[in-house]
Amino acid sequence: MEGTTLRLMLVFSLVLLCSLLLSFCGYRTQDGSPVTEPGPSQQREEMVESQLKGRGIANELVLEAMRKVPRHLFMPPEVRQYAYIDSPVPIGAEQTISQPYIVALMTQIVDPKPQDRVLEVGTGSGYQAAVLSELVREVFTIEIIPALAQRAGKALSELGYDGVEVRQGDGYQGWPEKSPFDIILITAAPEEIPQPLIDQLAERGRLVVPVGPAGDIQTLTLLTKVKGQITRTSITSVRFVPMTGEAQR
Description:
The chain has helices at 5-25, 40-52, 60-68, 100-110, 127-133, 146-158, 195-199, and strands spanning 89-92, 95-97, 117-121, 138-143, 164-168, 181-186, 201-211, 218-226, 229-238. It is an alpha/beta fold. The strands form two sheets. It has a seven-stranded mixed β-sheet with strand order 5-4-3-6-7-8-9.
């Protein structure tokens, strides 16, 4: 759920304008006939090849999960046609679904293993949880906005992601009764990483989070826990919506 609302809408408008211009001009084959619009499966394959592999996503299991999960079905019907573009897309409640590359990058960074238990803070559309569910044993995901939690839970259930449990609430305190977690993935930006989430990280656990002030450039950060000690690694600059609730207070 990256990007401030204003900047996101400007970027999305530009992407949409380019898409409409290309549609108006029309793609043509050599004999002049129009090119058939690719279906979702083909669009996902093109997404993997052009947006992910070309930008350093090399984990084959992550790439296969991105090929498999129907991203468009986690989005409101009115924006599903933009599901596979290289951009975040608004999903309502001033939130977005992150661009595919960011989803793949965060997933690759935490290096999911089949027996891992994952906590996600910031369910959003439910798409990131679905991608993780293709790779790990269990996913527990928390969304602070009731309407998004309900919609994501419905989408995950209808698509058969039974390994994902959705909770509506503030993710600042994590999910203590389900801890510890091998992976914690936070899809909104706190200025400081909540200590309860660090405490719920298992030995050799990995936590990835964008850290920084709202409306500014943040740093995607990886925390690892080895023998009880936390190591921080800065990955790249990003821009996410702020983590709300207790994190803001």
